Structure formats: C-alpha cells, structure tokens
Automatic annotation (TrEMBL):
Organism expressing this protein natively: Spiribacter salilacus
Record-listed E.C. numbers: 2.3.1.8
Residues in Phosphate acetyl/butaryl transferase domain copies: 3-326
Catalytic activity as recorded in UniProt: acetyl-CoA + phosphate = acetyl phosphate + CoA
Pathway it works in: Metabolic intermediate biosynthesis; acetyl-CoA biosynthesis; acetyl-CoA from acetate: step 2/2
PANTHER family, sorted: PHOSPHATE ACETYLTRANSFERASE (PTHR43356:SF3)
Gene3D superfamilies noted in UniProt: 3.40.50.10950, Isocitrate/Isopropylmalate dehydrogenase-like
Name the record gives this protein: Phosphate acetyltransferase
Coiled coil regions in record: none
InterPro entries reported for this sequence: P_Ac_Bu_trans, P_AcTrfase, P_AcTrfase_dom1, P_AcTrfase_dom2, Phos_Acetyltrans/Butyryltrans, PTA_PTB
Keywords: Acyltransferase, Transferase
Gene Ontology MF terms in the entry: phosphate acetyltransferase activity
Length: 339
C-alpha cells in the first residue's frame, strides 16, 4: 500500500465535511464526485445552484447525493454576515459589506468552517492564492499562540528512488518570503506536527542553509541556527538540527564528514527552507527534475483547516488536497466546537 493509499484509508474513517468554494468549476465537480465515491470526505459544493447543476449536466457529471450550498440563500447568508460583522467590525467592516462578502463563495467557505458548518475548506482552482489565503486569514484566523500561517508540500518520491522515506515534507514553499528566526521556528513546529499526522515515521527536521553548523559566518546562517535553538526549546523531544546544507541533511556519507555528531544529518525527512526563494525553487526542482509528486501547498497555522489550490490544478490535485484537508481535521471534536 502506498502512502497515498494509507492517507486515503485514514480519511475514510473521519467523514470530514469539506466545503469546495468553487463549485461550478468542472474539475472541482469531478473531484467532489471522486471523493464522495471513495468515501474520503463529505464534499459540499458552494456556489450558485443553478450554475453548478448546469455545468454538471453539460459535463455529464452525476451529483446525486452531493450537497450543494448556495451562499446567497437569505437566511444562511444573513447568519454568516452577522458572524463576519461581529468578527471584523473593529477593522471597519460594515454590515452591508459583510453581507456582500458572506454571499460570495470565497468568504462563505471559511465562514462555514468557522461557524462549524464544515470541517475544512478548499479553494483556489479559480481564485488566486492571495485572495484565497486572505479570506481564510480574515475569517478563520491564525491558530491561538501561533506567529504566522505557512505552508508545506508533501513530496512523494518516484518509484525506485534512492530516498528511504515514503515521503518528504518541504516548507515553507509558498507564503513567507523571508521569515525571521522566530517565524522559522513556528514553521518548523507546525510542519513537524503535520508530519506526525501524515507520515508513518517520526519527523527528523533539517533547518536548511548554505552553511553547515557554523561552516560559514553570515547573518542568514545565524538566523537559521537561532531558529533551530528556538525549535529545540519548543519541542525538546523533536529531532531537529541546523543550520544544515541540503546535501548534509540527506546524504549519509556527506553528513558523516560535515556533521558527524548530528542525529538528523543524512536522514532528514522534513526540510525547512530559509526563505521563499529557496523553498519554491527547491520543490519545483524536485518535482520537475527529480520526478517527485508535489502535493500542496498545504496551509498550516490556521485555527481551522483551509487550503489553497493552484489555478492550474487537476482533478487529482483537488482530490488529494481534500484528503489532506480531511486529515487535518483528525482529532477535532465531532460537535465542531466554535472558535
């Protein structure tokens, strides 16, 4: 059984209600049907009902048994608008504008998650990442005690790869341009938490740099070393080391020469990049040249699960994101206690 098969099997036991904010997109419709048929989630299609059913009919997609939610339905819209107004009026949001936002799928989806109508939401097949993440931040917000929202990619190696692990995790490859030491520490902490949820092996976190354990003297290397110390203080039992160069973090014989006392070097499965340039370029090199399957970016650090898609996503990409979003709800109280 592959890791994706294992994750899907676990998702089936959760019956997580995942609201899809772009319900009239044919890819979203097909992914919703696939998820419902496989039992990995209970999809909720959000949007104009007439338009959703029209697209489904034209595309030959049977939506039997899948719930369609129209965010402009007066009673529900007014209730969500009131919740949004109460949440954002201190930022200058008026009730009239709250009603406009609540009637839009982009904001109705995270509102449904916040108000416990759904366990998680997925969007971004049509809307930009900036718009999708902004709505989630404004409505769901950052997890209490956390410093920021970040992202990770689940990287599945190709068949016959030299990588021993079922998967690697790269972070942050999508959101934070140049995190400071504290922010890097939170990114590492959240990524390790998600690794515990997704991987069948314990997380071993490499804090990446162009330097290995002081081999280069530069403020950027010091920033990563400081972040490593912060993670160690936050999670004394977590295997984490840094700063490490990428080769020292994953190649055993190089690790033996560069970091012989490290318990992470040469065997890392979590890679925390020092900034967005390195992270975004790194995952795409692994994907395009190394043949890795890159699933993400998966958002982390939010108070409730909400995830973003690429506008170039496939049906399979949406399906996989629904599985990961469902797994992010694992352990939540089934009465959906409100934030």
């Amino acid at each position: 059984m592959t890791l994706l098969d294992e994750l899907s099997a676990r998702a089936r036991g959760l019956s997580a209600r995942i609201v899809l904010s772009e319900g009239s997109d044919a890819r979203v419709l097909r992914a919703a049907v696939m998820a419902a048929d496989d039992g990995v989630a209970v999809p909720l299609l959000l949007g104009n009902a007439e338009e959703i059913y029209s697209v489904a009919e034209k595309q030959g997609i049977a939506l039997a048994g899948i719930e369609v939610v129209d965010p402009s339905e007066p009673a529900d819209c007014e209730r969500r608008a009131a919740a949004l107004f109460a949440l954002r009026q201190h930022k200058g949001l008026t009730l009239e504008n709250a009603r406009k936002l609540a009637s839009s799928p982009l904001y109705a989806a995270p509102l449904m998650v916040r108000e416990a109508e759904a366990d998680g939401c997925v969007g971004g097949a049509v809307h930009s990442t900036a718009d999708t993440v902004r709505a989630a931040l404004k409505v769901i917000g950052v997890k209490p005690g956390n410093a920021l929202v970040s992202s990770f990619f689940l990287m599945i190696p190709p068949v016959n790869s030299a990588i021993d692990s079922q998967a690697l995790i790269f972070a942050d490859c999508a959101l934070n341009v140049r995190p400071n030491a504290e922010e890097l520490a939170y990114i590492a902490s959240d990524t390790a938490d998600n690794a515990n949820r997704l991987l069948s092996e314990p997380p071993r976190v490499a804090m990446l740099s162009f330097s290995t354990l002081g081999s280069a003297k530069h403020p950027d290397a010091t920033r990563v070393a400081d972040a490593t110390h912060a993670v160690e203080a936050m999670h004394p039992d977590l295997e984490v080391d840094g700063e490490l160069q990428f080769d020292a973090s994953i190649v055993a014989d190089i690790a033996e020469r560069k970091a012989p006392k490290s318990t992470v070097a040469g065997r890392a499965n979590i890679f925390i990049f020092p900034g967005l340039e390195a992270g975004n370029i790194g995952y795409k090199i692994a994907q395009r040249l190394g043949g890795f399957l890159a699933i993400g970016p998966v958002l982390q650090g939010l108070a409730r699960p909400a995830n973003d898609l690429s506008r170039g996503c496939s049906v399979e990409d949406i399906y996989r994101m629904m599985v990961l979003t469902a797994l992010q709800t694992e352990g939540a109280k089934r009465e959906y206690a409100k934030i």
